User: Fold DNA-3-methyladenine glycosylase I from Nepenthes gracilis.
Amino acid sequence: MVANMGEKEIIEIASNKELGLAECRARCIVDNAKAIVKVVKECGSFSSFLWGYFSYKPVINKYRYPRNVPLRSPKAEVISKELVRRGFRLVGPVITQSFIQAAGMTIDHLVDCFRYNECVNLAENPWKHV
Assistant:
């Protein structure tokens, strides 16, 4: 388990040239894994922790132009601050916004994107796709 990695394993991963991972990044990964373990103990799952910020329902946006899609949002700011408070690293609001977009917690596809209707349908009727 990543959360249990010791000093020797972190240095070994950081020295692996194929991975190209700086030692500080490897340490962040281990620290974040430890923080996730704590969140899971407290909230049952990392998913429940994050979805709680969205009342377990994705935010469906209706952007027309790429310039309207935010790099960060007020929700991402709040989540980012809470993650940092809980010991996570490298989780600024831009990274957090990217994560919540990728996880489907916010639908930020443009309305004329070929995936928009499919994503909205999944968000509005999740039980049909389980």
Summary: The longest strand covers residues 59-60. The mean pLDDT is 92.
